[in-house]
From TrEMBL:
InterPro entries: AB_hydrolase_fold (IPR029058), Dienelactn_hydro (IPR002925), Dienelactone_hydrolase-like (IPR051049), TAT_signal (IPR006311). This is Carboxymethylenebutenolidase. Residues 69-291 form the Dienelactone hydrolase domain. It holds the Pfam family DLH. One of its GO terms (molecular function) is hydrolase activity.
Amino acid sequence: MSAEPQLTSDVIGLTKVAPFSRRGFMTASAAVTAGYTLAAGPVRADAIKTDTGGLTAGDAMIKLADGEMPGYFARPAGVSNPPVVLVAMEIFGLHEYIKDVTRRLAKLGAFAVAPDYYFRKGVDLTKITEIPQLMPIVNSKPDAELLSDLDSTVAWAKSQGGDASKLGIIGFCRGGRTVWEYAAHSSALKAGAAFYGSLVDPPNPVWPKSPTQLAGEMKAPVLGLYGEADTGIPVATVEAFKAALAENKKTAEFKIYPGAPHGFHADYRPSYRSEAAADAWSQMQAWFRKYGVLS
C-alpha cells in the first residue's frame, strides 16, 4: 500500500516535479558551502544572491518563555521604526534562500526576521540530506507552539526598534501554510502573503485545524500565490478555499500561475520559474503597501 495519502501536500508538490537537466547546478559540496540544504534537492548555480549593502543583517537570538530561538534578520541601516515582516521558512531549515528573502525584504524597507522555529528538535535541518528524515521532525511541530514562537519573534523585533503596528508575514511551502495559520491567530497582523502554502492537512494531532478549516477565523487579509501545475495543491483545492473565505466575508486574493509548479519562487531549485516568481514578488509588495505594511 502506498504511503502517499499520509504525505503533506507541500512534500508531494516538492517531490513530484518534472525531470531536469543537471547542467547549471552546483555540486553538492558547493551547495552546502553556499549555505543551502541538500534535502531540498539540486541547487541552481545562478540562485539569486542579495548583498547586505545598506542593511544591518545577521543572526539573532529570540527570547522565548522556554529559552532562546535562533533566527536571521535584516533591516535597513539607520532607519527608525521599520515595519516588521516575519519570514516563515520551508521545511528545510534556515538556509541561504530564506536568508536571502529576508535581505530582499529589508531592501524594501522592512525589518524582516526569519525564526528557526524547529530548533527545539536539537538537529540542524540544513544538514539533513533526505526528505524522509525531515518529515517526522517538522510534522511534529505543534501549531500552538509555532504561533507562540511567531508572537515571540514579533515581540523581539519590536524590542529591537521595529514597528510592530505594521506587521506582515510571508511564507513559502510549509511556511505558506504558516501564513494562513498565523492570519487566523494574530489580531495584530496587517497582511500576509502565502506562496504555495498547503491548505488541507493529513491527520495530525498537533495540527488542530488546516487553513481550510480556519476560513471563518481569518483576522488579516492574505494574498495566496499558487502554481497551476502544483502536484500537491490542486487548483480545485485553492478554489474551494477561496470560496470558503468569500462565504465568510474574509479579505483574500489569489493568483494562480499557469504551468508553474510547487516552489516556483525558490530560485535555488529546479522548480523555479522566473516570470511567475518576479510577478508574485511584485504582487506581494503591492499587497503589503495596500494594507499598510510597506510604505
